[in-house]
Each structure stands twice: as structure tokens, then as C-alpha cells.
Specification:
alpha+beta; 15-stranded antiparallel beta sheet; 261 residues; single chain
Length: 261
């Protein structure tokens, strides 16, 4: 397994930041229905390949299983700090959480003073086995450990030789959450970044149908600011968990808001 020097990682981070800043409007950067970026072949092949080859075994105890029928059937890692990150994924996470990358996202997406999540609350590796699903939803808006507001998500897909009949596309919806505007295939080394607010509906609504012995893989990270979203992006002012279309825009417990620390 190749180990990258600090100098090499910084150079990759600078190259990655430049790809974000130079993302072509209406080809890689989109304003509608909410700001998002889609860039293929994002990392050098050896970086992305290392993350895939060292993706945590599905049998590991570090996975948290979500099994809410018709709403959320998937697994995600329970990282508590960077020391839980497997070495194969560490370079990717370090770059995506670096100040170099944060500044590039801020510039291109128009959100100042972004902060990564050192607690990795809800972030980390994601896996969707055959039969997996993620209903259309908007994400939770508040980070208990810091009191910060969720503003942006980044997803790196790690699925080599993906075929469309396997399903698992990341779907972007209009501001009602009812009409799919775009389907993004979860292909290897594709990075998706999007603004997170009460109108940024998204999901993986078609049941995943990956071949036996394979599963949908991604790395997901979240970003925050001290400031809340603009008023025109807020529907529920109080802290809330993910709000699901199939739950009539309530969380899994049937609430619009939640208690917080």
C-alpha cells in the first residue's frame, strides 16, 4: 500500500481545489434546483484506488446498520475521530477536510467560513447492500457537539464498473421533493458536492440491485458554519433530523424538530 508524503498530499489537495474552483458552469457546476458540483476522475487514480482497496470490510463491528423499511436501509461507519479512519481512506478525508479544499468550496459554492466535522457525526464510509434504499429527504441541520449549522455535503463514489441496471443513482429533486431533476451514477472516483438546507431534497429512492458479493460504496463528509442558512432556505427553524418525503416531511419519530444538547 502506497504512503503519500505531506508534500504529495498538499499537491493533490491544491489540484483538487483547482478542480472545484474551475468547475464548468452547467457541465460540472449547477445552480438548480440547488447548488451542486459533479466532477469525474476527481482524485489521482492511485488515491481513489487505495480508498477502494482498503474500504472497511462489511463484517467489521464499526458499521452502524439502518434498517427502516422503505425509508433507509444502509450501513455507515461509526467513526468518532480521525483515528478511526482506515489508512486507505485517510488521504481522501484529509484532503476533503483541509483548509485548501474548504476555501475552494467556499469560493465556488458561495458559503463562507466552512468548518469540517472532526467528530464525523453521520459521516464516514457508507455501504448499501442489494435491497438498500434511501428515501428522498433533506438532511438534519444542526450539529450537537459544536452548535454549528449544516451547510454542505461531499460524496466520493467508489464503485468500479458500475452499470445502470444495478441502480444506486444519487437523485436530486426539486424543492417539493416530488420531482426528480437529475440522476447521478455512483461511478468510481466521482465527487458530488451539494448545498444542504431544508429544500435540498435528495436520495437513492430505487432499490439497490448490485451483483451478489458487491455493494454500493461511498465516502460522505459534512461541512458546517456558525451562521445558519439564508431565510429562503429554511422551512424548519429549530434543529431537526433528516425529514423524509415518505414521512410527510417528518423525521423517523414523526417529529419536525428534535431535542438538542
Amino acid at each position: 500500500m502506497k504512503f503519500f508524503s505531506q508534500k504529495e498530499l498538499k499537491e493533490i489537495a491544491l489540484q483538487s481545489a483547482e478542480k472545484i474552483i474551475q468547475a464548468k458552469t452547467d457541465q460540472q457546476f449547477f445552480n438548480e434546483p440547488y447548488k451542486h458540483i459533479v466532477i469525474d476522475n476527481f482524485f489521482p487514480e492511485e488515491v481513489a484506488h487505495k480508498a477502494l482497496e482498503n474500504f472497511t470490510s462489511i463484517d467489521s463491528q464499526i458499521w452502524e446498520k439502518n434498517n427502516d423499511i422503505d425509508i433507509e436501509i444502509k450501513l455507515r461507519t461509526t467513526w468518532k475521530s480521525e483515528f478511526d479512519i482506515p489508512e486507505g481512506s485517510l488521504e481522501v478525508v484529509r484532503i476533503l477536510n483541509s483548509s485548501i479544499f474548504l476555501e475552494a468550496m467556499s469560493e465556488r459554492m458561495g458559503i463562507k467560513k466552512l468548518i469540517p466535522d472532526p467528530y464525523f457525526t453521520g459521516g464516514g464510509l457508507n455501504a448499501m447492500m442489494p435491497g438498500g434504499i434511501l428515501d428522498v429527504h433533506v438532511d438534519g441541520n444542526y450539529h450537537d457537539a459544536t452548535g454549528l449549522n449544516r451547510r454542505m455535503n461531499a460524496i466520493l463514489f467508489l464503485n468500479k464498473n458500475w452499470e445502470s441496471h444495478w441502480k444506486g443513482e444519487f437523485c436530486i429533486y426539486d424543492t417539493t421533493g416530488l420531482n426528480c431533476i437529475k440522476k447521478i451514477g455512483p461511478i468510481f472516483n466521482r465527487l458530488v458536492i451539494f448545498n444542504s438546507h431544508d429544500l435540498s431534497f435528495h436520495g437513492v429512492p430505487e432499490i439497490v440491485n448490485f451483483p451478489e458479493g458487491d455493494f454500493r460504496k461511498s465516502i460522505i463528509l459534512y461541512y458546517y458554519t456558525k451562521d445558519s442558512c439564508p431565510e429562503n432556505q429554511i422551512v424548519v427553524k429549530d434543529p431537526h433530523s433528516a425529514l423524509w418525503v415518505k414521512k410527510n416531511l417528518h423525521d423517523k419519530k414523526g417529529n419536525k424538530s428534535r431535542k438538542f444538547n
